TrEMBL record:
Keywords: Amino-acid transport, ATP-binding, Nucleotide-binding, Transport
Domain of life: Bacteria
Species name: Dankookia rubra
Family in the record: Belongs to the ABC transporter superfamily.
GO molecular function: ATP binding; ATP hydrolysis activity; branched-chain amino acid transmembrane transporter activity
Protein name: ABC transporter ATP-binding protein
InterPro entries: AAA+_ATPase (IPR003593), ABC_branched_ATPase_LivF/BraG (IPR030660), ABC_transporter-like_ATP-bd (IPR003439), ABC_transporter-like_CS (IPR017871), BCAA_Transport_ATP-bd_LivF (IPR052156), P-loop_NTPase (IPR027417)
CDD domains: ABC_TM1139_LivF_branched (cd03224)
Domain ABC transporter residues, every copy: 6-239
Gene Ontology annotations of biological process type: L-amino acid transport
Length: 240
């Protein structure tokens, strides 16, 4: 069996005295899309923050590309090849769209490559090219989401962490953005760890899924099999 690109092993993460993650293990094999589903407050965002070094777990390991990255700063985690498109997008509203994208490439020195990747982002999201010199704070919610994903891509990740890309978007725009996420995975070979409340779209997009309840993984399987389970249909897909 090949070694997965990312292996999270038994992490426990706290906010002060509050334990948000209670021994979570998961894997993301190279080139795949893996999703973490769960209700509000289940701990999805905390898992991504623990992987990207924003939070340190009290216990457990995060093995990326063969080494434990627990304790590295977010900056160092990014240099290793993990880029995070955070919940709420966290774009820089007073910078232009192009400047936001270049912020995503600050760890890189090859300007030609950066220019090519800028073109790549504009290829995936032509709307960003049209708005390149506009302040990012003036973009619509959907455009800001495109910008957040693209800014993460500008770091040339091996693994992209995507937190709730559908948040606040219309169903149609959500579908369009997820189509592009799939293309990015296919065409660039970028592995993706996707956190989503919209279980319908997440299960159709990803290869493998984990269901999180109150900080614990309660079910894991291929998305195909998860979609066929009665409990998943009832609680996450709203079908009986
Ligand atoms: P959502 O879908 O609503 O974003 P989530 O599954 O991403 O939820 P988290 O944001 O990871 O959940 O939160 C997990 C738990 O940790 C929740 O109980 C939440 O209240 C708590 N929590 C999150 N951030 C903090 C914080 N900064 N301080 C204290 N508790 C927090």
């Amino acid at each position: 069996m090949s070694i997965p690109l990312l292996r999270v092993q038994g992490i426990e993460t706290f906010y002060g005295p509050i334990q948000a993650i209670r021994g979570v293990s998961l894997e993301v094999p190279e080139g795949t899309i893996v999703t973490v589903l769960g209700a509000n407050g289940a701990g999805k965002t905390t898992i991504l923050r623990t992987i990207s070094g924003v939070l340190d777990p009290d216990r457990g390991e995060v093995i990326f590309d063969g080494s434990n990255i627990v304790g590295l700063t977010p900056d160092k985690v990014m240099r290793r090849g993990i880029c995070h498109s955070p919940e709420g997008r966290e774009i820089f509203p007073f910078l232009s769209v192009a400047e936001n994208l270049l912020m995503g490439s600050y760890t890189r020195s090859n300007r030609d490559e950066v220019a090519r990747d800028l073109e790549m982002c504009f290829g995936y999201f032509p709307r960003l090219r049209e708005r390149a010199s506009q302040r990012a704070g003036q973009l619509s919610g959907g455009e800001q989401q495109m910008l957040a994903i693209s800014r993460a891509l500008m770091g040339r990740p091996k693994l992209l962490l995507l937190d709730e890309p559908s948040l606040g978007l219309s169903p149609l725009l959500t579908l369009q953005i997820f189509e592009i996420v799939k293309r990015i995975n296919r065409e660039r070979g970028v592995a993706i760890l996707l956190v989503e409340q919209n279980a319908h779209i997440a299960l159709r997009t990803a290869d493998y899924g984990y269901v999180l309840e109150v900080g614990r993984v309660v079910v894991e399987d291929t998305c195909k099999r998860l979609m066929e389970r009665d409990d998943i249909k009832e609680f996450y897909l709203g079908q009986r």
